[in-house]
Amino acid sequence: MKHKIIFLDMDGTLYQTENDIIQDSALDAIDLLRDKGFKVCAATGRPLNQMKLILERVQFDAYVLINGSYILDKEFNEIGAYPIDKKTVEDLVSLCKEKKFGLMFHFGDATYIYNDFYPMYDFCKYCNVLDSLFYDVTQTFHKRHRVFNAVIMTKDKSSLDEFLKAHPNLRSDLINVKTDGFCFDIFNADNDKSRGVKMVLDRFNMSWKDTICIGDSTNDIGMLQNADIGVAMGSATDYVKSFADWSTTSTYDNGIFNAVAKILKEEDS
């Protein structure tokens, strides 16, 4: 086989977020890949503690979590980690207190809401991760644990943009979910899924030439660009599709299976 490893985004790619479905055809596709000797890896914005429902149906050979900030092997041992600077985390807490933004932190294996419990609760309910959720009324958990990602909920994007301009070490991605506010993922500016993918490739003594990546959102662009084959889901925007080599159908229409069938046919030709 020309390629040896595939990285799959979860939400909107492998996983139908709003109804907790992984299509049987997608699971069949993973079995086909493994029969051909592929390593199958997750590349997701989720932390490990929010992978429970997915892991009940499929396990992976490596995990690129929290958009490349936290990378684990198949036994969940840490391969690499890129937490947000502690001073910057304190600034995020202060911003959200002052502006009354909703705030939630991912700590790798734990998720804590700091502000606006019920809007964040609704967001997490939509994502089927309520059982991984905690509330820190003291807003101090970050003082003792590494923060890999913040989720901010606000309609005051101008204030968030001002904060990010003053903190060029951070970047934001809009999360497209059904909430009363607008949700933004906040990460280290120099970090994305492709950085975590590269670390996994190094661990397996592989290169981008060995790699296939499938995703649907802006946080997948880096890995779609770098992979030898980058596949965008049918639901992806035209902007995201412009960074992929080609597109498959949506996650609701056997997108993973159709992509894998095409890939394996070309591999065997």
From TrEMBL:
PROSITE patterns attached to this UniProt entry: COF_2
Instruction: Report the InterPro entries cross-referenced here.
Output: Cof, HAD-like_sf, HAD-SF_hydro_IIB, HAD_sf
Q: Which Pfam families match?
A: Hydrolase_3
GO cellular component terms, semicolon-separated: cytosol
Q: Which UniProt keywords apply?
A: Hydrolase
Mind listing the GO molecular function terms for this protein? magnesium ion binding; phosphatase activity
The protein's name in its UniProt record: HAD family hydrolase
Which species does the entry assign this protein to?
Faecalicoccus acidiformans
